[in-house]
C-alpha cells in the first residue's frame, strides 16, 4: 500500500525517465510526491530545486516535479547528502528535505550482504543465494520507502541557501586557445587571454 500521494502512474513515469527501478529512485519519488502536494509542479521555472546529491532520485525530481537542468531550475550543489531544497518563486515558499540517517535492522542486513557480495565467492550457488536474498531485502526496503509516513523518511527543515535567480541567456565567447565557444560566465581571463576552464587549467598544469 503506497503513501497517499504516491500512485503507480507516478512510479511508472519516473522509471520510464530514469531507465530502471531502484531504491534511489524510490527516495526521489517520495520527495517529488511531497513537493507536488505542497508546492505544485513546474511547467516552466516557477519552482526551483537545489539538489545536494547526484544520485538516482534526482531523476524523479526532473520527471515528476518538472525541475530540470535544461530549464535552469535544477541546481546541483554537491554536498554528498540526500537532501533537496525547493523554492516557489511566486511567494518565496521554501523547504529543505533531508533523508534521515538509518540504523534499523533492514538497513544493516542490506549493507552486510552488499559487502559480502563484493568479496570473492568461489561457490556460484552461494553467490546466487546471496544475490537472491539481497534482491528480496531491497524489494522490501523499496516497499517501505513508498509506504512509510514521509516524516519517518525525511526531515523537513529550513533552506540553507537563497533562492537561485532565473536562468540567464549569456553571450558566447571564443576561447583564445582551443577556439571553442564558451558561455561568457565561464571564461577565465589569464595573461591577456580569454580561456575556457579546461585551457586555463591546462596552462596551470
Main attributes?
alpha+beta; 5-stranded mixed beta sheet; 205 residues; two-stranded antiparallel ribbon; 7 helices; 9 strands
Provide a descriptive summary of the structure in words.
- This protein has 205 residues and is an alpha+beta fold.
- The protein has 7 helices and 9 strands, in the order H-H-E-H-E-E-E-H-H-H-E-E-E-E-E-H.
- Strand 3 (83-88) and strand 4 (94-99) form a beta hairpin.
- It is globular.
What would a concise description of this structure say?
With about 200 residues, the chain is of the alpha+beta class.
Number of helices: 7
- DSSP strand tally: 9
Helices and strands, in order, run as: HHEHEEEHHHEEEEEH
Can you list the strand order of the major beta sheet?
2-1-3-4-5
Distance between the termini: 56 Å
SS content category: alpha+beta
* Main β-sheet description: 5 strands, mixed
Q: Cα-atom Rg, whole angstroms? A: 21 Å
Overall form = globular
Helical content stands at 40-55%
Low confidence ranges = none
- Portion of residues in beta strands equals 15-25%
Mean pLDDT: 94
What does the secondary structure layout of this molecule look like, with pairings?
Layout: H1 8-18, H2 23-38, E1 47-51, H3 57-65, E2 74-76, E3 83-88, E4 94-99, H4 105-117, H5 124-147, H6 150-153, E5 154-157, E6 172-174, E7 181-183, E8 188-190, E9 193-195, H7 197-204
Parallel strand pairs: 1-2
Antiparallel strand pairs: 1-3, 3-4, 4-5, 6-7, 8-9
Helix pairs in contact: 1-2, 1-3, 2-3, 2-5, 4-5
Amino acid at each position: 500500500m503506497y503513501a497517499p500521494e504516491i500512485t503507480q502512474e507516478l512510479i511508472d513515469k519516473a522509471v520510464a525517465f530514469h531507465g530502471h527501478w531502484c531504491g534511489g529512485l524510490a527516495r526521489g519519488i517520495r520527495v517529488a510526491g511531497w513537493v507536488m502536494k505542497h508546492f505544485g509542479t513546474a511547467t516552466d521555472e516557477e519552482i526551483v530545486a537545489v539538489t545536494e546529491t547526484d544520485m538516482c532520485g534526482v531523476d524523479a525530481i526532473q520527471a515528476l516535479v518538472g525541475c530540470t537542468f535544461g530549464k535552469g531550475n535544477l541546481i546541483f550543489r554537491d554536498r554528498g547528502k540526500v537532501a533537496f531544497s525547493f523554492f516557489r518563486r511566486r511567494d518565496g515558499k521554501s523547504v529543505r528535505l533531508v533523508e534521515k540517517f538509518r540504523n534499523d535492522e533492514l538497513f544493516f542486513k542490506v549493507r552486510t550482504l552488499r559487502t559480502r557480495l563484493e568479496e570473492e565467492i568461489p561457490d556460484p550457488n552461494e553467490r546466487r543465494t546471496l544475490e537472491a536474498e539481497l534482491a528480496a531485502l531491497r524489494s522490501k526496503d523499496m516497499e517501505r520507502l513508498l509506504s512509510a509516513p514521509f516524516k519517518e523518511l525525511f526531515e523537513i527543515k529550513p533552506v540553507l541557501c537563497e533562492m537561485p535567480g532565473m536562468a540567464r541567456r549569456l553571450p558566447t565567447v571564443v576561447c583564445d586557445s582551443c577556439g571553442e565557444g564558451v558561455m561568457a560566465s565561464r571564461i577565465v581571463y589569464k595573461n591577456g587571454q580569454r580561456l575556457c576552464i579546461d585551457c586555463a587549467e591546462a596552462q596551470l598544469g
